[in-house]
Amino acid sequence: MENPNTLLALRRDKAAALAAEGVALYGNRFKAPQHLAEILPQGEQLAAEEHDPAGTTYRVAGRIMSLRRFGKAAFFHLRDASGEMQIYARRDLVGETAYEHFKKWDVGDIVGAEGQLFKTRTGELSLEASRLEMVTKSLRPLPEKFHGLTDVETRYRQRYLDMIVNPEVAATFRKRVEIIRLIREFMRSRGFLEAETPMMQAVPGGANARPFQTHHNALGMDLYLRIAPELYLKRLLVGGFDRVFEINRNFRNEGIDTRHNPEFTMMEFYQAFATYHDMMDLTEALISELAEKVCGSTSITYQGQKVNLAPPWRRLSMDEALVQVGGLDPALLHDGPGLMRLAESRGVKFQPEAGPGKAKAELFELLVEEQLIDPTFVTSYPTEISPLARRNEENPELTDRFELFITGREIANAFSELNDPIDQEARFQQQIDGRGDDEEIHPVLDRDYIRALEYGMPPAGGEGIGIDRLVMLLTDSASIRDVILFPLLKPESAE
Description:
Blueprint: H1 4-20, H2 36-39, E1 58-69, E2 73-79, E3 84-90, H3 91-94, H4 96-102, E4 110-119, E5 125-136, H5 152-157, H6 159-165, H7 167-189, E6 193-194, E7 200-201, E8 213-216, E9 221-225, H8 230-239, E10 243-251, E11 263-272, H9 276-295, E12 299-302, E13 305-308, E14 314-317, H10 318-324, H11 336-345, H12 356-367, E15 376-379, E16 401-406, E17 409-416, H13 421-433, H14 447-455, E18 460-466, H15 467-475
Helix pairs in contact: 6-7, 8-14, 10-12, 11-12, 13-14
């Protein structure tokens, strides 16, 4: 294997030689290339060794991905955003001077070509170049063809290179864009207005999470990158919007693993005069429709597991899930101290104010969550762990809330929203009083949100869907970093 420094030096020598010969290494003269995907169908009818009888000249540009030279002729593969095509370059067609310049081209260079279509002896559609032009000289060699770019950290850190040498990566992100576009279309078709709410907040709320803190110099105040847009979107319900949604970033100063990134994308939406049952119906329709349009079917495979996204989806209360999936004795569900002891025996540590509701939630995570492969709505969460959800009118110890699980991970969280300002303030205060050293609970009560509720918020259903996890599911991606273009990494060590 050649020394990387030697390869860099050779590239720079070639670039210097081309520049000395008057070649523009970073020019902007090659205009309006045609996408390869538009050109390829034009040559499908050609036979082996046949030229296009129409004699149409095409103009293409892209990156050289492979290159074979044979003295007075060469073949190279050109890739643009739409596809890849072979280019045939002959000295007698492109001219002596242009061909001498071409001999200093490398894999990785971005180049332009003009010519006519033909098929080679082997039947490969190619463009026979009559003109070649350097567009952008690449000063660094691409990873070796047969081994590619395999180091995971390098792939995440140098995503631009990852996309060049691993076409499936670029395909994943194109699919991500399509998923978000389809979500927006779905929501707008149902009368939801898209809103933008503050990224910097004086009081972080809408979820329990440790925020990132910053300081505004002009105002002389600390601010927090938002952990959720919930409380601002519900202020819009107070203001008279009846259906509203936002797709944007949240920031949580927590651990990093295959399911978590400190900066991630969520969609939150709220609908006046709706309940969490309506949210379940909408979610079921949205994700099954996405699967049909993006994957071609509601039957998909995720990391080797078959997943059926066709409605109707299973709906279980948390208690039912603990018994039917987690294997708990139904009698234990009514034994608060027993639940606490069982959770503690499995390594759970509780704050002094914690009760059996917290124990149920911890046991659910330990015993049930990873077993929920096909879509499952888990409902009836304890009030103790649901400070923003409406109490169930028949059993105030429970809330009208669900979480959606697919492939063993949470995809969505939804409530019938709490709109009683007195109950809301009391629950916020109770949470703050019992926070102990829990940094995920902000110690300041959002009094403006309480004031907004005092003006009256209509009954409503609301939900948050993790866009990154949804994209993971629909692109069969193992890690959240595989669906985030530039995931957060530690600074690169000095070379």
